[in-house]
Amino acid sequence: MDQEKQITLTSLFEVVSSIERKWANEWNNQNVLGFSKSHILILDYLSQEGPKRPSAIADRLKVTTGGVTVLTSKLINAGFIEKTQHATDRRAFQLIITPDGKDILEKSRQQVSEILNNMFGMLSAEEIQTLREIFAKLLNSESTR
What we know:
Number of helices: 6
CATH topology: Arc Repressor Mutant, subunit A
Mean pLDDT: 89
CATH superfamily: Winged helix-like DNA-binding domain superfamily/Winged helix DNA-binding domain
Protein name: MarR family winged helix-turn-helix transcriptional regulator
Domain HTH marR-type: 9-140
Number of strands: 2
InterPro entries: HTH_MarR-typ, MarR/SlyA-like, WH-like_DNA-bd_sf, WH_DNA-bd_sf
Organism: Lysinibacillus xylanilyticus
CATH architecture: Orthogonal Bundle
Low-confidence stretches: none
Helix content: over 70%
Keywords: DNA-binding
Structural class: mainly alpha
Distance between the termini: 18 Å
């Protein structure tokens, strides 16, 4: 890699790190619900896709099944998701969002919308789409190594 590209990539790394910190700070400052982004992503996934096994959630969030257990325990204890028996495999269970979970998800969507607007509201729809495509490409290249 040539030196100019290396310098530019280092600068990009610094910018992305700063954006990540800003995003975390925005989340922490506005997070009145007490749940992490991962908790909200689980609720959203179950709301959109229906009951899922922990392994499917782990795949979606790119975490271990042990990580899913830790995350879902808080949601189960709060009454936002429930364990149910798998429809075809009586030995397995699935997780399903509850009505209270749907309510808290709706509140969190409003919170997330405010954060996203604060962070990305100055960008055009085209710029946001370009960013999304670039970040998706980076994530996909990681899995092809």
